[in-house]
Every structure is written in C-alpha cells, then in structure tokens.
User: Fold this.
Amino acid sequence: MYAIENYKGTTPFNEQYDEIYEFLLGDSDRGLNEHFHWGRFEWMMDSGYLAEDKLTTIAMFRNSGGGIVGLVTYDTGWHDRTYLIHSENDKELLKEMVAYVLRTDEQPMIKVNSLDAPLCEVLREMGFEKKHTNDHVLQIALDRDLHYNIPEGYKVGGWGLAGQ
Assistant:
C-alpha cells in the first residue's frame, strides 16, 4: 500500500515542487519517461499556459519510508494528460496509480512509453487499449545530414537566426 499525496493548492512553486523535481531527476535515466522529465516539469510550472486549477490533480505515491516512488501528472494543459512516472516496477504501485486515474478523471487517457513493459501490462490487464502511436518528441538522430538552407536576407550569428 502506498500513501497518495496531492499537490497542494494552485501555486506552481510550492513546498512539494523541489521534492517532485528531485524524484524526476533521479528517474530520468531509466529511459521510460523521455516525454516527461525534470526539465519538462520545470518548464511546465513556469509556463504561462499552465492549467493551475488542475495542479491539485497531480498525485505523488509514497513508499513506507515517505519517499516518492510514483507520480501521476499532466503536462501544462489538461488536454495533455496523463503521465504515470514510477521509479519502481512494483505491479501493485502501478495498479494503484492507474486506479487513481480512473477515480479522478472522467475521460482517462494515459500516455505511456511502449518500452515500459510493466506499466503496459498493468494497463492491458485493467482494460486499456493502445489507441495512438507517437514518435519521441525530445530525440533527434545526429548521424543524419542536418544541413539547412537559410532564406536570403537572414544570417546565423551569435544570437541565432536574425534578419539583416
């Protein structure tokens, strides 16, 4: 059994922010949450487009020692939901996280990395179907030609692309 704690209030940078940031930072090298990591969380909280009224839907799942081992969150706008980020592959944790989404969201939609086998298995067992396939948004292959023709009248300088 895990303790569930929701984000407190509608202020983006509250006392829970740093702890969530540290959890995401520690989880970032697992390769399962490249779409939502510590940098995305930081950007989200400082974005003018943040749906602040939904901040209290963010849920932290804590182990018996009080540490965060799971996070249910959205990304900036409510339309871009739901991410289940976990540092443990405990099936019971994943089931509790999915059950939380089912209890709190009238139209549940979960975004998951297809390489996250434990979460994919739990979602299938709980009746979810794979609906969409999207490519990585934070990856680019650097072994391909990245040549780009700059339109006439522009130049690349110390501050990026600028008109002349």
Notes: DSSP finds four helices and six strands in the chain. The beta strands are 3-6, 59-62, 68-75, 77-86, 154-157, 160-163. Helices lie at 17-27, 38-46, 91-104, 117-125.
